[in-house]
Amino acid sequence: MKSLAELAAIRDKMKDKVILREGSGNKRIVVGMATCGIAAGARPVLNAFVAEVNAAGLSGEATVTQTGCIGICQYEPVAEVFEGDTKTTYVKLNPDKVKEIVEQHIKGGKVVEAYTIGNAEK
Amino acid sequence: MKELSLNVLDITMNSVKAGATLIEILIDETDTALTITIRDNGCGMTEEVVQQLANPFYTTRTTRKVGMGVPLLKLAAEQTGGHVSIVSDTVDEAPDSHGTTVTAVFDKTHLDFTPLGDMIPTITTLIQGSPDIDFVFRHTKPSGATELETAALREILGDGVSLAEFEVLQWIDGYLREQYAASV
């Protein structure tokens, strides 16, 4: 049974990690979570980003956040990756594509061109 | 929407945007009826705005001129013979009790009833996006109840650890999953 004691143990383990993390984090992944996104499948996409970033040990380098309607509803689920002044817009996502994006782009630094909006518009 | 839990996520996002600090998500099931109540202490809406909500061409968003959240919930409820009601008080109207309550009633036995689906990722997604809001979630069925209050979890975690930490979200996921398994 999941107990509150277990949660307290997570807290004690996390405290040190959280301190380490402050000040870092140069990539921001923003997932569109308005009606259009949710209806198209943004909930599993967001949760895949959260899980994959953590599984790849990248929680210190990338943060996953939610936003409203990005304005390109026909391409939902959409996520934008911000690094400094650069923005990459990924469209028509699913959890499998998210896994590739985290592996190649967030971890490896190489944009997955096939899933970008530029590619979708061709 | 493929499942009602997605409508719940979508409608609750409105409470988040309304600046609520406390949001209650209550699901009551009998053998034949399902009632969803989403109650917040956010900024509230005037009667004029509430009247407009069922109109898809009314929206607060600026990116385009269509707002489908409430119309989609209304459609899902009404196609089972149920209904949606919205009660709201602005800060001016009710300085101490402002906020919005959305209630949706469904007939579970109707052919066009959309299944509730998995509420757990809806709850964890809301907490991930707004770890500082107090969420109260209660899903009651004839066989038992599943409950979560994030304020109680935050008390254990203290100031240093956010509810949005992956390990914490995973714990919440497991905690809810165990309660659901016990109330099948």
Would you write up a description of this structure?
The complex is a heterodimer of chains A (122) and B (184). Chain A has 122 residues and is an alpha+beta fold. Chain A has a single domain, classed as 3-Layer(aba) Sandwich (Glutaredoxin), CATH 3.40.30.10. Chain A is 45% helix and 18% strand. Chain A is built from 5 helices and 4 strands. Chain A has helices at 4-21, 35-40, 42-55, 95-107, 117-120, and strands at 27-32, 62-67, 79-83, 86-90. A 4-stranded mixed β-sheet of chain A has the order 2-1-3-4. In chain A, strand 3 and strand 4 (86-90) form a beta hairpin. Chain B has a single domain (4-182), classed as Histidine kinase-like ATPase, C-terminal domain (Heat Shock Protein 90, 2-Layer Sandwich). Helices cover 36% and strands 25% of the residues of chain B. Chain B has helices spanning 4-17, 47-52, 69-78, 119-129, 150-157, 166-182, and strands at 22-29, 33-40, 83-89, 99-107, 134-141, 144-149. Chain B has a 6-stranded mixed β-sheet. In chain B, helix 1 (4-17) runs antiparallel to helix 3, helix 1 (4-17) packs parallel to helix 4 and helix 4 (119-129) runs antiparallel to helix 6. The chains are: A alpha+beta (122), B alpha+beta (184). Chains A and B meet through helix 1, helix 2, helix 3 and strand 2 of A and helix 1, helix 4, helix 5 and helix 6 of B.
Q: In angstroms, what is the radius of gyration of chain B?
A: 17 Å
CATH architecture field of chain A: 3-Layer(aba) Sandwich
**Count of domain modules of chain B:** 1
String of helices and strands of chain B: HEEHHEEHEEHH
Number of domains of chain A: 1
Structural class based on helices, strands and sheet pairing of chain A = alpha+beta
State the CATH class of chain A: Alpha Beta
Percent helix of chain A: 40-55%
Radius of gyration of chain A: 16 Å
The strand count of chain B comes to 6
List SSEs of chain A in N-to-C order: HEHHEEEHH
What overall geometry of chain A do the principal axes of the alpha carbons give? Answer: globular
The CATH superfamily of chain B is identified as Histidine kinase-like ATPase, C-terminal domain
Note poorly predicted spans of chain A. Answer: none
Query: How much of the sequence of chain B is in beta strands?
Result: 25-35%
Summed over residues and divided by their number, the pLDDT of chain A gives a mean of: 91
Largest sheet of chain A: 4 strands, mixed
- Based on Cα principal axes, name the global outline of chain B: globular
Question: Helix count of chain B, per DSSP?
Answer: 6
